[in-house]
Request: fold
Amino acid sequence: MENVVCTFCGSVCDDVQFDTQQYKGKKFCALGMSKFSAKERIKSPMIDGKAVSYEEAIDAAVDILVNSKKPLLYGWASTVNEAIRVGVILTEKLGGIYDQCSSVCHGPGVLSTIEEGLPGGTLGQVKNRADVVVFWGSNPMEAHPRHPTRYSVTAKGFFVKDRKERKVIVVDVRKTKSARLADEFIQIKPGYDYAIFSALRMLVKGEEIEAEEVGGVSVSKLAELAETMKNAKYGAILYGLGITQSRGRDRNIENAVKLIQLLNRYTRWIIWPMRGHYNVVGAGEVPAWEVGYQYAIDFSRGYPRFSPAEFAVSEALLRRDCDAALIVASDPVAHLPKKAVEHLKSIPVIQIDPFPNMTTLISKVVIPAAITGIEAEGTAYRMDGIPLRVKKVVDSEYWSDEKILHEMLKRVEVRMGFS
Reply:
């Protein structure tokens, strides 16, 4: 099958091939291949570890959710927009908390966008126009292996014909695999991103810096970088968790956006996050066009409230502000702080996922789902906000996330008197 859409990382490569007979893919990177290969699955719905039907599992899940005072519905980054939309509506009906994976990764970038906006562009523009690309606190060679060849480093574009016409710079606290393919690697001290963005803003404006170095980088080196940025025809800063999850967090991104705004007085620059899961953008965009916020949304008062300091997954669990949880396409037990996981273990958990993981071990109700992009279709946003239609390539007896959530929503509405 030609032009299959890979549902692993935010690059959402739409040019891969899949052999439905041998269950093998072609043109995948190692990460995509790992998902599009036969592997251990959750074999059937379960309640307390005992196999049941989908109907029984959904009934048990609805019992938990309806009897909960404030359930947490979390995950969403590895499913399609159609399922996310139903999840947002379900959370509103239940008066619960909706949160998604950005709250522990790119959430600070969302906060900075609220403050400063986001001078962005598409990966197609980067491929065709960008003659200077800066990877700041991101490592595409390990996180998005095909990104450099398709869009940002060796990609042949309309105005940038080959690798020789593009300068690639990596800024990070250590020398990563991505640094090896860069024209220039700038190593900075951990937690000094904000200071370096401030220094670059001064240098771009022509102001002098009295110190000899900032954040472990000499001022002369920063001056060279500032000059390179000003002389670019079209530049892009593609940032990662290196600056969203270090000291400064959303203030780092705000300062970087201010740098881009300044550079745009001289030339054309964009800044964009290197998002991780294949539809983590959709996990924020869908609730944004449904209720106005992207994550950490509380519906307990009958209307949506946004507060990452209260309603993000870690904070809600640490404050014991939820008494049940529905986890969709995520594994919080493997990634959240220990104290947060301790509360998660003390409340009834419902899991919807194709694959067993650490969250499966603590879940009272487990509902296996079809693998999106292989056994189920839908719509997903690429990391640059471009929507792509995800194909179904093989048939399966597993229910899709959308179907499971629709069944839950219908039964919740009946039980709570909405219909």
Residues 401-415 form the longest helix (15 residues). The chain has a mean pLDDT of 96. The CA atoms of residues 79 and 372 lie 7 Å apart. The chain has two domains: 40-105+278-371+397-415, 107-273.
